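Technical note accompanying the year-one report. For the benefit of new consortium partners, we illustrate the data format agreed upon in the data management plan: each record pairs a sequence with a structure-token string. No post-processing was applied to the example shown here.
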Amino acid sequence: MVAHSFADPFFGPAQRLHGATYGVEIEVRTPVLGVHGVVMDIGALRSIVAQAVKAIDYSNLDENPAFPGRTSTTERVAAYLADVVARQIRELPDDGCPASPASLRVCLRESPTAWAAYECPIER
């Protein structure tokens, strides 16, 4: 759950401070399973995602330096989470990381009919 507003008139009434509650979906993709027969250590991924979400949960993103100029659109929040999660995955031990090439997809759902997703590579 976050609060934010948008400085751009393009966003109409969303220029005013409002809240958003996101459902967060994280997907790690790789064409090859690792030595343990999995894409990656799911326990490690769960911890990484929890830390990334905790950093913005119940906060006003207008005050977060990761979103300068009040541009915390759903897409930008997904990109922010993807960058944080990918960075942490790269720091895992080799047997806990996904095999290369790997990618990460973060989908934020605002409602059953409105969502945005962002994808990025996980390069070691």
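Partners are asked to follow this layout when depositing records. The chain has one domain: 20-122.
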